[in-house]
Amino acid sequence: MAIYDVHLIRVFEAPIERVWRAWTDPGDLREWWGPTGFSCPVATVDLRVGGHIFATMKAPPEYGGLEQHSTWTFTELERPNVIRYRFEFCDAAGTVISPTEAGIPEGVPALGEHEVLLTDLSDGRTGLEMTERGYTNSEVRDLSAMGLEQCLDKMAALVEV
């Protein structure tokens, strides 16, 4: 079975500490997590290796208003440059569930290995390189990449002030 990864590169017109905060502050996460039209009514952060983010993404009414919960367990943190985490779907109580139980199409990994690398470009800009590993078909990988691009557009609107 082929494995496909999402790999995105982005430059933010914002200092590295501001971009780091967008990833690690619950208030900031609520502003950008979810593609265009989606909201994030709940985000909590336990910022330590072994700690996690719990995030709820809510679809707009035209998509049924479904709430999807996930947990991101940190495996490596090197402020302000490296965030590595395991992404899993969960229920509202934080209990891990399968992607199918979460209403996610086949091809999305049950345990996604994600990596965020931030680089200080020394001129008030920050480079971001992000990888999500383990998709088993290219169509789902491409949909995920599109959603992630929209999330990063929302992040840019937040940090580039």
CATH architecture classification name: 2-Layer Sandwich
Which segments are poorly predicted (pLDDT under 50) over 5 or more consecutive residues?
none
Level of helix content? 10-25%
Overall SS class: alpha+beta
Sequence of secondary-structure elements: EHHEEEEEEH
Gyration radius (Cα, Å) is 15 Å
If you average the pLDDT, what whole number results?
97
Work out the number of β strands. 7
Strand content: 35-45%
CATH topology: Alpha-D-Glucose-1,6-Bisphosphate, Chain A, domain 4
Taken together, the total number of domains comes to 1
- State the end-to-end CA separation: 44 Å
Counting H and I runs of at least 4 residues, what is the number of helices?
3
Strand order of the largest sheet: 1-7-6-5-4-3-2
> What is the CATH class?
Alpha Beta
Shape, principal axes of CA atoms: globular
Distinctive features:
single chain, alpha+beta, Alpha-D-Glucose-1,6-Bisphosphate, Chain A, domain 4
Write the layout of secondary structure elements.
Blueprint: E1 4-12, H1 16-24, H2 26-32, E2 39-45, E3 52-58, E4 67-78, E5 82-90, E6 112-120, E7 126-135, H3 138-159
Antiparallel strand pairs: 1-7, 2-3, 3-4, 4-5, 5-6, 6-7
Helix pairs in contact: 1-2
Structure overview:
- By secondary structure, the protein is α+β, with helices and mostly antiparallel strands.
- It has one domain (4-159): Alpha-D-Glucose-1,6-Bisphosphate, Chain A, domain 4.
- It contains three helices and seven strands; from the N terminus they run βααββββββα.
- It has helices at 16-24, 26-32, 138-159, and strands at residues 4-12, 39-45, 52-58, 67-78, 82-90, 112-120, 126-135.
- The model has no long low-confidence stretch (mean pLDDT 97).
